[in-house]
Design a protein that fits this description.
heterotrimer; A mainly alpha (273); B mainly alpha (271); C alpha/beta (267); A: 273 residues; mainly alpha; MetI-like fold; 11 helices; B: 271 residues; 2 domains; 75% helix
């Protein structure tokens, strides 16, 4: 290839390397070495029983042949009542959770709430987010007994952790000039919330509620396994009785509903935003 | 908005009377639905158990305190396993989700009629099965232990990471991609030079986000035998060994707090 | 033989918009041709039909004696190496370094893994350094593209197009987002480089005075058709009215003497 550009005075460089992402070479090598050691240690302690894994395929085959064909009817009543129970739990928990979340979110937004209230609300959110739903469900089942009440309590708590946190972040991200303009009119604090904050966060608040409804339904299928009611309880019973064909039917129904719910919630969220 | 007139001149209201009515009706119906749900649940609830909850809680609390601190020395290994399940599971999921996402994104997919629907189905199927159910299935297939947990986390996360990633790919800036194409680059080079640099920040963010979620998820996989600290937890609960349960819960709490702090640090370093 | 021959080129988008309507043009070797016209006249579509970033609906594009419109993807890629393109808003990959952006002009010549590991041939790298110096960006090779100013970014874009060692330069609104002074500098740089290397160039440009200043020939597009084709000084108010519609053009066609004394080009 020929270049017709006038040649520069200095001999042209013909070597170039991309500058590394981490400039400090010692840090770079240390991080790389650390990562290598970690991976070796982690994979080394995996304890994979390859003989057992090799047996996996025939086992899986037997397992899945038990699933086939899925039986939707033998326990049709139980499946239907489980599904409906999941649905009640989902609606009740989402409504209650959102109702509790709104004040918590307002309290947890730094630009709205004073420091002590902010800290209180934030720790409330952190508390309800720390433990996995299933762990919370185990304890609520211990406290409230088996059944959907424990499920609603679990999902409500999880909803508060999720919804309040995201709503608070949304309130913190509002447009400042709009909020200043309302404040400049001499509006009271409540009027300011109503006129400056509410219109700005409303679309996202609705979108998040729909999204959480969707998540709560999925979770309701899981927490039932530890006794908190809903379709998960039906699933657990089916597994316990070795009725794998019914279990397969339930799993398929859950997947179907989750996909349908995700599709519709996507449409609703797009429509409000 | 509605402006009407009465004796004193024009009158403004936010909605027409009809709109007002519709809004109230919608709220009423919503409230009624929720009330019905609550009453159906209350029918299935044994309220004596609920009313005894405070006593139950006090009882549980007294059994948990003091926590059996000596047990904590046996928790290092399960915690290490829990951490590995989350980290290796996330890593595997990321490696698989990248090609899946490129196949699913409208602007990079090799074919919209065959490959894209398949990729979207993989994402949807992976997402709609909870990691606990994945673990349930995998324990049967590969046997109980950490490996089943790693795979369960990976299988669940492929869909999550794949979805967020393909959405990021669909939102990239088009002109740089055009520019790389115009130099005569092959499609692989267009991906690595035109597309990949643009989605790097999203990729890093998604990894940290999912890793944080997976730490939480991997604490419960032990309940179905897929390794991690959940194994110790379910054993202690079954033995009604509440002072040990307390120690395990504290350990989980500490792990989650540390992981949250770590991911916040990484996220801060990335932006 | 002309470097670029368009015959009966037509492009109708799936939306039904007719962007190009039976355009036939010949650009002889070494000519810098400016393409002017209102937004939506089809200037960008025309340029993109030449390297087939946009597929023409009918008609043909010949570069030299080779028909671009009939090429399969492999041949098209080899053909694209011979055509450098400079974009509106620079179209740099912002998270890559200046050097990587320039070297991406050689992607058509190196294999996938070589480009993956950033192992470009030494001649390419020394050409890249020479070009960076020529466009006034010496020493900037390790900066990330998003750390540069608009004018600097467009210089990177120019270097990227030139490292392809093209026969034909396709330039799409190179000054659209630059301030007036930088616009001049960039246009002058492009014109100089075309003269130095004897390049044929098609330059889309909004700015009529700039087109008059730097192009040897001006083609006016209006609603997908050629309505003016002639020397820059033939752009009378009447011609401009035909291209752009009714307006007082006297200020625009007024002598370009003030423009000739624009400050010297510098980084």
């Amino acid at each position: 290839m020929t270049v017709t550009t006038q040649t520069s005075h200095a001999p042209a460089r013909n070597y170039w390397r991309r500058p590394p992402i981490i400039a400090n070479p010692r840090l770079r090598w240390a991080l790389g070495l650390g990562l290598g050691i970690y991976l070796a240690a982690a994979i080394g302690t995996l304890d994979i029983n390859w003989i057992r894994v090799a047996e996996g395929w025939p086992r899986a085959e037997r397992f899945f042949s038990g699933f086939m064909p899925p039986d939707f009817f033998a326990r049709g009543d139980a499946i239907l009542s489980g599904l409906l129970e999941s649905l009640w739990m989902t609606v009740a928990a989402t409504a209650l959770g959102v109702l509790i979340s709104v004040p918590v979110a307002i309290g947890g937004a730094r630009n709205v709430a004073p420091m002590p209230i902010y800290l209180f609300c934030r720790s409330l959110m952190a508390l309800s987010r720390t433990f996995h739903e299933v762990l919370i469900a185990i304890f609520f089942v211990k406290l409230f007994g088996f059944g959907p009440f424990a499920g609603v309590a679990t999902l409500t708590m999880a909803t508060v952790g999720f919804y309040a946190k995201l709503l608070a972040e949304d309130i913190e991200a509002i447009n400042v000039s709009q909020s200043e303009a309302i404040r400049a009119t001499g509006a009271s604090w409540l009027q300011w919330l109503d006129y400056a904050i509410r219109p700005q966060v409303r679309p996202r608040a609705i979108g998040l509620a729909v999204y959480r409804l969707d998540i709560n339904f999925r979770e309701s299928a899981i927490i039932g396994i530890v006794g908190a009611g809903g379709i998960g309880a039906t699933l657990n019973t089916a597994f316990d009785r070795y009725e794998f064909d019914t279990a397969a039917a339930i799993l398929l129904i859950i997947i179907g509903i989750v996909m349908a719910a995700e599709y519709t919630s996507g449409i609703i969220r797009k429509a409000v935003q | 908005m509605a402006v009407s007139k009465d004796d004193h001149g024009p009158l403004w209201r936010r909605r027409t009377s009809k709109g007002d009515f519709a809004a109230w009706l919608a709220w009423l119906i919503g409230a009624a639905v929720v009330a019905v749900c609550f009453s159906l649940i209350s029918d299935k609830t044994i309220w004596e158990f609920v009313w005894s909850a405070p006593r139950e809680a006090a009882d549980l609390g007294s059994r948990m305190i003091p926590p059996d601190w000596s047990y904590s020395t046996q928790l290092w290994r399960p915690l290490w396993d829990t951490f590995n399940i989350a980290t290796l599971g996330t890593a595997i999921a990321l490696i698989i989700s990248v090609p899946v996402a490129f196949c699913a994104a409208r602007n990079t997919t090799p074919s919209t009629s065959v490959v894209r629907p398949i990729a979207l189905f993989v994402i949807a199927a992976s997402r709609s099965i909870n990691s606990l159910i994945w673990a349930l299935l995998l324990v049967v297939i590969v046997g109980p232990g950490v490996f089943a947990g790693v795979l369960a986390i990976a299988f669940r996360s492929i869909g999550f990471c794949g979805k967020l990633l393909y959405e990021a790919i669909e939102e990239i800036d088009v002109p740089p991609v055009e520019a790389v194409t115009a130099t005569g680059a092959s499609s692989g080079q267009v991906l690595t030079y035109g597309v990949a640099p643009q989605i790097m920040p999203a990729f890093a963010g998604i990894s940290v986000f999912r890793w944080d979620i997976n730490i939480r998820e991997s604490t419960i996989l032990g309940l179905v035998g897929a390794g991690g600290i959940g194994l110790q937890l379910s054993a202690s609960i079954n033995n009604l060994d509440w002072s040990r349960v307390a120690v395990i819960l504290i350990a989980i709490l500490a792990t989650v707090i540390v992981s949250e702090w770590l991911s916040a640090k990484i996220r801060g370093a990335l932006t | 033989m002309p470097t670029l021959t368009l015959s009966h080129l037509t492009k109708r988008y799936p939306t039904g918009d007719l962007a190009l309507d039976d355009v036939s043009l010949e650009v002889p070797e070494g000519q810098v041709m400016a393409l002017i016209g209102p937004s939506g006249a089809g200037k960008s579509t025309l340029i993109r039909c030449v390297n087939r970033l946009v597929e023409p609906t009918s008609g043909s594009v010949l570069v030299g004696d080779r028909n671009v419109t009939e090429m399969g993807s492999g041949k098209l890629r080899r053909m694209r190496r011979r055509m450098g393109m400079i974009f509106q808003e620079y179209a740099l990959v912002e998270r890559l370094t200046v050097m990587e952006n320039v070297l991406s002009g050689r992607l058509g010549y190196v294999g996938f893994w070589a480009s993956w590991f950033r192992r470009f041939p030494r001649e390419d790298i020394s050409t890249a350094f020479t070009l960076l110096e020529r466009v006034g960006l010496a020493g900037m090779e390790d900066k990330r593209a998003d750390a540069l100013s608009g004018g600097q970014r467009q210089r990177v874009g120019i270097a990227r197009a030139l490292i392809q060692n093209p026969d034909l330069l396709l330039v799409d609104e190179p000054t659209a987002s630059l301030d007036p002074k930088t616009s001049r500098q960039i246009m002058r740089l492009i014109a100089e480089l075309c003269t130095e290397r004897g390049l044929t160039a098609v330059v889309n440009i909004h700015d009529v005075p700039l087109a008059r200043l730097f192009a040897e020939r001006v083609v006016g597009l209006q609603a997908g058709g050629v309505v003016y084709d002639g020397p820059p000084n033939g752009l009378t108010p009447d011609a401009l009215t035909q291209i752009y519609g009714e307006e007082d053009w006297n200020a625009t066609t007024g002598k370009g003497d003030a423009e000739g004394s624009a400050p010297e080009d510098g980084p």
